[in-house]
Structures are given as structure tokens and as C-alpha cells.
């Protein structure tokens, strides 16, 4: 079963605007990762945030993590047409070993 | 290219046939994952290896599915007696610590 759920399922914005996607998950985690997937292609790792971190930046990406609410958000600033893709959050279970489980994804469309 | 490599990229097979996919992880990575992804959905976990040991297998994986990772290097995923419902993208990922890196996937079409 899916561990996380992204919200919204689909998002359409104009180029230059910011895009925010949210992820909620169910169990305790060691870390949370965000991935991008272009249509029909493999997943590209974007950013990882550990359970003891609250915010992380990478270029135009900003990720937050609230472990008390079991949620994370991904903000893409100054969006570009090339950011059009599906975005997934993935969590590992904080058990004896790492198992990465994905959410259902947010489909982002950036209109030039 | 030192990334995760999957072969073949595409496979079309007739229902009832067996298929085998291969994944070559990043060489120093000891963890290897298989996922299945259908259109519009996120990747679903199938199985996980740490070195050569298969540590978890999803209930999604019926008896027709088997995965191996001999010597803790490359891995194979075999589907026996394929069904149309097996049509999907099969993704492999590897990691050494935290970040998992994915291959381009094998797209299976069962006709």
C-alpha cells in the first residue's frame, strides 16, 4: 500500500509562479525524499530531508517536514516550463532496515 | 554511465509467457529495490535486497514473481505465466545509505 499521499493530485500554474505540493504519510520515518518523474521516464532524486530536520533548500526547491503532523511540503519557486512533471514523496520506514515507499504523486503543469 | 541500468527498456510478450528483467545497480550500493508503476500511480514497492539477501517481499508479488540478487551485484526479476494485469513499468533502484537512485525502468506490455 502507498505510505504517502500527495496533495493536490494535479496543479497547473503559469511560468514564474511558485508551486507548492504537500505530502502526508502514516508511520514514523527516518527521512523523506522528493522525486520528479517526467512522463514515461525514470524517477530523478530531488532532495532528502531527515526526520530531525525541519527545512531544507536546494536551488529553487524548498522542503519542509513536520513530523508531528506527519507531513512535508515541496515548494518550487519561479517555476519553469521544464518543471512540468509528476512529483512524488517517498518515505522510509524507521524499522530495522530501509524500505522506501512512495506516495501517489502530484502532476504539475507549468504553462509557458 | 555509472547510474542504475535496466534491461530491456521495453518488453512485449504474449500472455502466459515468462519474462525476465535485469537491473545493474550503482556498483558500491548494497541496497536494491524493485517497484512496479502503472499509469497515473506512484511506484509500488515489490521487493528489497540488502546485498544478496531478500529482506522483504510485498504481498503484491504473487508466486509468479521471483527476484534474485546473486552475489549482491545485479538483480533479476522474473514473471512467470504473465497476465495482462502485469503490464506496467518495472523500476529498479539502488542506494548505499539514504538516497535511492532509479533506473529508467522496463516497460512490460502483455498482449
- Unreliable stretches of chain A: none
Structural class of chain A: mainly beta
Radius of gyration of chain B: 13 Å
Largest sheet of chain A: 6 strands, mixed
Structural class of chain B: mainly beta
Separation of the first and last Cα atoms of chain A: 36 Å
**What percent of the residues of chain B sit in helical stretches (DSSP H or I)?**
under 10%
Please indicate the percent range of residues of chain A in DSSP E strands (runs of 2 or more). over 45%
Q: Globular, elongated, flat, extended or rod-shaped: what is the shape of chain A? A: globular
Average pLDDT taken over every residue of chain A? 89
Which runs of chain B of at least 5 residues are low in confidence (pLDDT < 50)? none
Largest sheet of chain B: 7 strands, mixed
Beta fraction of chain B: over 45%
Order of helices and strands of chain A: EEEEEEEEEEE
Amino acid at each position: 500500500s502507498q505510505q504517502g499521499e500527495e496533495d493536490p493530485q494535479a496543479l497547473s500554474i503559469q511560468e514564474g509562479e511558485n508551486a507548492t505540493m504537500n505530502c502526508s504519510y502514516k508511520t514514523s520515518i527516518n527521512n523523506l525524499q522528493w522525486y520528479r518523474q517526467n512522463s514515461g521516464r525514470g524517477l530523478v532524486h530531488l532532495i532528502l530531508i531527515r526526520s530531525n530536520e525541519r527545512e531544507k533548500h536546494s536551488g529553487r526547491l524548498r522542503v519542509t517536514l513536520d513530523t508531528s503532523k506527519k507531513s512535508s511540503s515541496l515548494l518550487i519557486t519561479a517555476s519553469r516550463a521544464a518543471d512540468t512533471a509528476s512529483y512524488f514523496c517517498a518515505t522510509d520506514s524507521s524499522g530495522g532496515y530501509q524500505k522506501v515507499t512512495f506516495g501517489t504523486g502530484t502532476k504539475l503543469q507549468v504553462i509557458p | 554511465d555509472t547510474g542504475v541500468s535496466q534491461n530491456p527498456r521495453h518488453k512485449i510478450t504474449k500472455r502466459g509467457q515468462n519474462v525476465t528483467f535485469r537491473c545493474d545497480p550503482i556498483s558500491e550500493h548494497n541496497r536494491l529495490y524493485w517497484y512496479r508503476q502503472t499509469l497515473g500511480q506512484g511506484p509500488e514497492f515489490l521487493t528489497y535486497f540488502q546485498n544478496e539477501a531478500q529482506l522483504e517481499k510485498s504481498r503484491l508479488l504473487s508466486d509468479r514473481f521471483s527476484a534474485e540478487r546473486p552475489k549482491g551485484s545485479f538483480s533479476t526479476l522474473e514473471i512467470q505465466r504473465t497476465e495482462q494485469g502485469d503490464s506496467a513499468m518495472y523500476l529498479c533502484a539502488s542506494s548505499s545509505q539514504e538516497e535511492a537512485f532509479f533506473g529508467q525502468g522496463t516497460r512490460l506490455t502483455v498482449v
